Here is the input.
Amino acid sequence: MNNAVPRDQWRQGPAGPQGPYQAQRAVVLLEPISMDEFTFTTSTIGGSIAVTDLVHKVNVMRRYRGPVSPVITLTDTLMRTRYGERRRPHFNIVDWIRMGGDEPQQAALPAPPPSGSDSNAVPVIEAKPEPVKEEPAAAAEPAKKPRRSKSGLNRVEPLTLKEELNDELPW
Here is the structure.
């Protein structure tokens, strides 16, 4: 897009002339208690590194834990540049949560009736109770409650090396 703009409309940047269009990266952040949304946008190399690093970590965790979200704090860290070390943004992951809650997923709705049938008919779904299996009292384990964060959201256990490598190390 910059090539379509005449050079006299470009501005002088630290690395020479820059066109009016720049690549942007954006991360939408949610404060889970007040449900306020914030957007972090950047067009810098340091900001791009921070966003790419966060996306990579989220993708790895979702591969093992499903649809989880990070709880982050906004910090900064050092980055080497040709001008020496500079500060860049950094998303520090404090915890992982599952936003969906404890409720099981809602069952799919029944299929609509064939087009030739009565359109006002309400489909009847019969629930069949499952047989109760008797287990010895000693073998029954108490159900684990999910860990809760300070905001009341379901916390997710961190990845273990065994899970990530799909291997058990003897030491």
Summary: The CA atoms of residues 8 and 91 lie 38 Å apart.
